[in-house]
Every structure is written in structure tokens, then in C-alpha cells.
Amino acid sequence: MKKQVMSLLLGSVVGVSSLWALRPGDIAEELSAVTWLQGGPVSTKDANGKMMKAVVFLRTRSDNAAETLQMLQALNARYADLLQCAAITPDSPADAAALLKQSGISAVSFGTDNDFSLTGKFMESFPVFPMAFLTAPDGTIIWCGEAADLPEAMENAAAGKIKPGEQRKLAEHLDRMLTALREGKHDLIAGLSADALKLDPGNAGILRLRLFELESRYRFKEAFRTVMDEIKKVPKRARLYMLAWELTVRHAELAHERHELLEALRKADLRDDEVNIITWQLLQNTFDADVLKTAVALQKKIVSEKEGLSAVQQASYDTTKALLLYRLGKPEKAYEIEKNLPALWKKAGILQNIPAAEKRAEFYKAAAELGK
Fold it and tell me: What are the structural domains, with CATH classification, of the chain?
């Protein structure tokens, strides 16, 4: 299971004045230049005035390409009557076809833009991938940002909580923060981020850039406190807990700050899938008793045996359950769960997860036999 929370490649974009050629409030370019390898054609507008469209630009050989397609397929299923997703790559048709074969994803329209003609109209000349654009039925862009943040944006859009005017202001703030970062104006970055986070508490792009700036100056405690303050504002925003957790993993001096985070996690009212992802990440740390206790407490919140779970949900929950059993010294029980997961991932259509499941099953089996 890969991390669901992907970080902006900030170190690569310090010299960029803007991440987007199009912003919220602009009319999206049509996708007429795309050569569709799967599904399509897709328009950025909906003739019936009902469907929103999500367009994601990605590179086929990046580590998170298959994961991005998996996320889009899940969004298509979750918002079947409200959203149509499409992925576009400037890479070759051969590379695109190889990614589709590797990922096993079949329910997402996927096409190529070999000459960058369309990609450049959405993004600046030095784009960051994968980048997503969400449009209203009339083709107006209502949100843009990293593809990893698209599920959260879509959830807000479905609830009518996205305002294109506010999103445009946030995009402008992010551009100004990038310029200030390049010029070393740290006080300006602090002010801009504070203003933006008042407008949209916990905003992903703003917060990541602020954390990058603070970490680059070794202000780790301030970075941690910044995230914890946002958690207090929006306690149901799961990725904020992951941001805080990752800070404590990257910087050993923050280890003693974990107690506050773990306590907040145990009290948090999050969805089962979010709790599962966080539990998986906590279990990567094997020598902190408080972390292990929190993982056990979180796992108890997940209803992993109820009827109606999809194959993807069941496989995800069981993967975490098996790892927890192993961490608790029960490799035999871990193996009994994990040995069934390759078939379950195949049923789910997530073929890229099968090799890792097979290796974990082999490992748990060996651990059980060696411990006898």
C-alpha cells in the first residue's frame, strides 16, 4: 500500500512564477487535441448540465502514476452520477499503453497529448505532475491543484462548498508565496499563508508550501504547530494528521510531540478508509509503544467485516489488519489473512498491488514458521 498523501515537488518549482496557465473562474480548454487510448472522447463541459469533469495531467513513469489512475477510477465509481474523470499524459502512446497494462485500470478515460499543446494551455511551461483541474458542467474551472487533493476537492464540490472566486484567490496567494520563497521573503510567506488559511483552513497547497519554507529553515516545531493548529480548525481533514505524522517521522526532535497528535487521532471522527490509511502509516513505526496502542485503537474503529464492502475496501482493510497482527506478534494470523489478498486485489482490478501482497504473505508465513 503506497502513501495516499503525495507532496508537492516544491524544490523543483521555486523558480516558477505560476503553476497554472488556467485558474478557477477561467473556462477550461476543450480536450479536442487528445488521442484517446481508453474511453473518451471527454469534454470539459456537460451538454446536460449535470456532470462535473476532472482532468488530470500525469507522467506515465512517475511512481504515483498507477495510484493516480486508481484514485480516478474510485472517484468515477463514487460519484457516478456527478463526475467524469479523464487522465492525460504528454508521454508517448507506448508509455501510456504500458501504464494501463501495468495498472489494470479500465474505467478511466486516458489519452495522450504528445506535443504538449493541450498541457501547456492548462499549465505553465514548467508544470508539476500530476495536476488536476475540476470543472463545472458549463466548463468553468472551479478548482485546480495536485491530483492527490482531488478527492477532497470533489467531496467539497459535491456538497456545494467550493466557490471559484475563493479558489482563484488561493491560487493567486500560492503564486505570490512561490515568488516570495524564491526571493527569501519569509515574513511575506508567513503573512500570505495566514491569510490563505483563514480563507480556507487546512488548504493543501498553501500548507505544504508553508511547511516546506519552515522546514528549509529548520523551524520544525513551528511547522508541527502550524499543522496542529489547522487540525483544531478542521478536525475531520484526515490528510492533516498525516502531514503532522510525517513531520515527526522526518525530524527526530519532534518525536516527543507525537503524544498530542496521537491523542487527537484517537478522538478524530474520520471515515473508515481514512482511518485505515493512517493506521497503515503508523504501523511503519515499530518501536513506539504509544504509536502501536494508537494503531490498535484506530483499527477497532474500522468496520472491516460489514456487508457491502467493495473488493478494494476489503483488500485495503485486510492488508492493514494483517500488518497489525504481525506487529502484535501474531504472524500466523497475519498470514491467514494476507494469503487471500492477491486474489482479492485481482478481483478489485488493482493488479499492481498483487506482487506486494504475495511478498507480504511469504514473509508472514516465514515469520510464523521460524517462530515455532
Answer: 10-162 (3.40.30.10)
